[in-house]
Specification:
Length: 167
């Protein structure tokens, strides 16, 4: 079983991370207007899945704002989605207050299947671990980053380099 730490305390992750070169499991996530999104909705685009515990926390707030700013420099062939277990209503409120428009907020609130299938559901908290997945336009996983300490930010430069390699 994979682990991460939260404020130094070990936490166990449910499921297994998808392997580089694989086609990760499809998902059914909810948008801020209660529509459903799946991998098919991003077909033909590079997809960056920025997974965070909650948008209403300082590190997650900084991370998603940073990716929102970085999106402006990326090709229109790239989509960025922030995935959390926050309710869609809370995500909509946060995105509005933060001025986040280039990153789509997606919720795994219903049953946590995304977190379990992607190996990032924290068993003790039932929140997502901090992770980033980059999928090529054909749906193949080309990069993943599981941040070992949930309260730390990801390596942005590595993520952006991975995106630039596939567009």
């Amino acid at each position: 079983m994979n682990t991460v730490s939260f404020q130094g305390k070990p936490m166990h992750l449910i499921g297994n991370l998808p392997g580089i070169g694989s086609r990760p499991s499809d998902f059914s996530l909810v948008t801020t207007d209660l529509a459903t999104r799946s991998l098919d909705d991003y077909k033909g685009k590079a997809l960056v899945l920025v997974c965070v515990p909650s948008l209403d926390t300082p590190v997650c707030d900084m991370e998603v704002r940073r990716f929102n700013n970085e999106a402006a420099a990326l090709s229109d062939k790239v989509r960025i989605a922030a995935v959390s277990r926050d309710l869609p209503f809370a995500q909509a409120r946060w995105c509005g207050a933060a001025g986040v428009k280039a990153v789509e907020a997606l919720s795994d609130y219903k049953n946590g299947d995304f977190g379990k299938n992607y190996g990032i559901m924290i068993e003790e908290l039932m929140l997502l671990a901090r992770a980033v997945f980059v999928l090529a336009p054909d749906g193949v996983l080309t990069y993943s980053q599981l941040v070992p300490e949930v309260t730390h930010e990801p390596d942005y430069a590595a993520v952006l380099e991975a995106v630039k390699k596939i567009v």
